[in-house]
Design brief:
The structure holds 2 protein chains of 2 kinds. By secondary structure, chain A is mainly alpha-helical. Chain A has helices at about 5-25, 25-30, 30-50, 60-90, 95-100, 105-130, 140-165, 170-185, 195-205, 205-220, 230-250, and strands at about 55, 55-60. The radius of gyration of chain A is 19 Å and the shape is elongated. Chain B folds into 2 domains: about 5-225, 3-Layer(aba) Sandwich (Rossmann fold), CATH 3.40.50.300; about 230-300, Alpha-Beta Plaits (2-Layer Sandwich), CATH 3.30.70. Chain B has 10 helices and 14 strands. In chain B, the strands form 3 sheets. Chain B has a 6-stranded mixed sheet with strand order 6-7-8-3-9-10, sandwiched between helices. In chain B, strands 2-1-4-5 form a 4-stranded antiparallel sheet. Chain B has a 4-stranded antiparallel sheet with strand order 12-13-11-14, with no helix packed on it. In chain B, α3 crosses α4. The chains are: A mainly alpha, B alpha/beta.
């Protein structure tokens, strides 16, 4: 297949993914909107006013970047894991496997479909946050880079999960038992600066801490204890490693070919 | 001339140690209508799985129109269309979208894909259902949808794995007319089916696979010549005597009006008809006890069991 055919194949997979999550918007786009609105009301208006400031910002302003990243992480991940696993389950993935689409295009199509949902959710959450705080961007480049790399990383993670999954339970285990705890402990609701030394050290082993704080830096100019160079390097390396691993597994047919 | 399909020393051993293919060799000429038959678990689906790259082979070579699937997989896949045994399309997509999406995977422009899909869906009687979710289709319609999807990139080699399973007789005939037409236009067709009379009628060449090995690979005519005897049922107008004896023929009285007779390849039926005539018994109809290919197939695949 030439460049043009590859492009058509990529667009086919990507737009199929976008159509899928748009078609089932009450399951994909509405829940984060409702959940985040509740977070804004509870943590922002009800509890936030009693907390005061965090990192020099009022609490509501402080949590908005964390909540945006939280929805980007879960939505990028779950879009790819559920869609690809569902195609495996229905065997419709065979349509792709018998076709001449190169594996890297299959991977790119699904992953960027997940990124599209992550970014769309981010836009929805940011739009909702405008009802509670003023919109501000300290560094547009850092904001875009952080959200893109995070979304890519978790979309690739979702793809990896789908490759190994043998049942729908396997698709929900990682988000429930790994992603949610790491996200909550990743500085979404607090600055790790307020933690005791030991727990601050433990928190620094959590990759989500770097993503949340890199994005917070982009929006507010505040990154807490996180060094931005390290944060972006970790994200870029994780994306590259996950891409290579997923592509290798696709090439060998792991979870797809007997 | 380049073969449509060449398989050399193909082996497959699954992770559980089951040896599904034991080094098979097979070749299919371009334009052929080829039957790949075998009992359940013989290795047909594994062979098709390897050709369509859904199953990893353990050893051996597969070429599709001269393109080795190890070195020119993309080129090989471009020439191949597969209609699998199980429904494997997205059940929530609309009928035309299933076909158009598949075209996209082959790099076909959306406009061209829609035009081609309209043509195939019309030919297969699915055009009126184009906006229906595919899960709402009947079993026969789903099978036709898979055929339309497999043809959308106009493959030179079409593999049909049990295409008429669960399809009613009328539709089966329509389907075979359509596939014959595709074959007459130059598309090579490989068919697996449990309806052996279909294989006998449609296919010019045949391979029989059993327990992971090819036990027969020849033309349909050659194979049928191997049949040394055939069994027929004769329906008679008059009541048959309790002890029906016909010199030189192995006969059995099934009921008052039905006689079963086994006839050797060199024997012919004229002698039997003469004797029936002498006994003033009229034959009103005659039919094969079983399909000729079926008799051979059962004999071959049960030889060592």
């Amino acid at each position: 297949m030439g460049l043009q055919q590859n492009w058509i194949a990529f667009c086919t997979i990507f737009f199929k993914e976008v159509r899928r999550f748009m078609r089932i918007w009450p399951q994909t786009l509405l829940p984060p909107a409702i959940t985040m609105s509740l977070y804004f009301v509870i943590f922002g208006s009800v509890i936030g006013s009693r907390i005061g400031t965090m990192g020099g910002f009022d609490y509501m302003t402080f949590v908005v970047p964390g909540l945006v990243m939280m929805s980007v992480i879960t939505n990028s991940y779950s879009n790819v894991s559920s869609s690809f696993y569902s195609n495996k389950f229905q065997k419709s993935v065979e349509e792709l496997l018998v076709s001449p689409v190169p594996n890297w295009i299959i991977l790119a199509g699904y992953v960027l479909g997940g990124v599209a949902r992550g970014l769309m959710t981010a836009c929805i959450v940011i739009a909702l946050s405008l009802f509670f705080v003023d919109f501000q961007v300290y560094s547009l480049l850092a904001t875009i880079l952080a959200v893109l790399l995070t979304s890519l990383m978790f979309a690739l993670g979702g793809f990896l999960n789908a490759l190994f999954a043998r049942s729908f339970d396997d698709v929900s285990i990682i988000p429930t038992f790994v992603l949610t705890p790491l996200t909550y402990l990743g500085g979404v609701f607090y600055s790790v600066k307020v933690l005791p030394d030991f727990w601050r050290g433990v928190s620094q082993a959590n990759p989500i801490l770097y993503q949340v704080n890199a994005f917070r830096y982009g929006m507010l100019g505040y990154s807490g204890v996180v060094d931005l160079d390290i944060a972006f390097s970790i994200m870029a390396i994780a994306v590259a490693v996950l891409f290579v691993v997923c592509l290798h597994l696709l090439n060998t047919g792991k979870g797809l070919r007997s | 001339m380049t073969k449509a399909l060449t398989i050399r020393k193909l082996r497959k051993t699954y992770d559980n140690g089951h040896e599904a293919l034991k080094g098979i060799d097979l070749s299919v000429e371009p334009g052929d209508f080829f039957a790949l038959l075998g009992p359940n678990g013989a290795g047909k689906s594994t062979t098709i799985g390897i050709i369509s790259s859904l199953v990893n082979k353990s050893a051996g070579h597969v070429d599709i129109f001269g393109y080795d699937i190890d070195h020119d997989l993309v080129a090989a896949k471009c020439h191949l269309g597969v209609v699998p045994q199980e429904f494997n399309f997205n059940q929530f997509e609309k009928v035309q979208d299933v076909v158009v999406t598949q075209a996209g995977y082959y790099g076909i422009h959306h406009r061209e894909a829609r035009r081609n899909s309209e043509s195939y869906l019309k030919q297969l009687g699915l055009w009126d259902k184009r906006d229906t979710q595919s899960r709402m289709l009947s079993g026969g319609m789903k099978r036709r949808l898979m055929i339309a999807r497999a043809l959308i990139h106009q493959p030179r080699l079409l593999i049909l794995d049990e295409p008429t399973a669960g399809v009613d007789i009328e539709l089966r005939r329509t389907l075979w007319d359509f596939i014959s037409e595709i074959n007459s236009q130059g598309t090579t067709v490989i068919l697996t089916t449990h309806y052996l009379e279909e294989a006998e009628q449609m296919c010019s060449n045949i391979a029989i696979i059993d327990d992971g090995s090819i036990i027969e690979n020849t033309s349909m005519k050659q194979l049928l010549r191997k049949l040394d005897k055939e069994s027929f049922f004769l329906d008679t107008r008059q009541v048959l005597p309790e002890q029906s004896i016909f010199a030189g023929y192995d006969v059995r009285r099934v009921d008052e009006h039905t006689l079963e007779v086994e006839v050797g390849k060199t024997q012919g039926l004229n002698g039997l008809f003469l004797q029936l005539n002498e006994q003033q018994i009229d034959v009103v109809s005659m039919r094969n006890k079983s399909n000729r290919l079926e008799e051979l197939f059962v004999g071959m695949t049960n030889k060592d069991k």
